[in-house]
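tool=predict chain=A
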Amino acid sequence: MAHHSRLAGFIIDSRTDDLDASATFWGSALGIRVVDPDSGGTGQYAEFGSAPGDLHVEVQKVEHPSRVHLDIETDDIDAEVARLEALGASRVAFVKRWWVMQAPDGQRFCVVPMQTGNGRAEPNRWD
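tool=predict ok
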């Protein structure tokens, strides 16, 4: 079955006790403004606005070592995960509504539900 996917954005995983300080640093470093310092109300995510290409960028408070990962958004999570596994990726964990995956080179990334109406480029169609 055909499905669609595209780059959604970048998530800055920050092992910190001070999400606000981390978000302030990254906002200043990247030249983008924090628009929601407590996205979701859990104290775990700080969201930025007006990123280049209308990409989603946020700082996420984590327990693992700090790193940057990307999100791929899709209208069919199962189909996209299967496509990426065929390319050599592996599943790491299912979290809330998305899959954390690992590329063959060890990089982690997430496959998340498609967000519409955000001004991003048209998604790729996979048959």
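The mean pLDDT is 93. The first strand starts at residue 3 and ends at 14.
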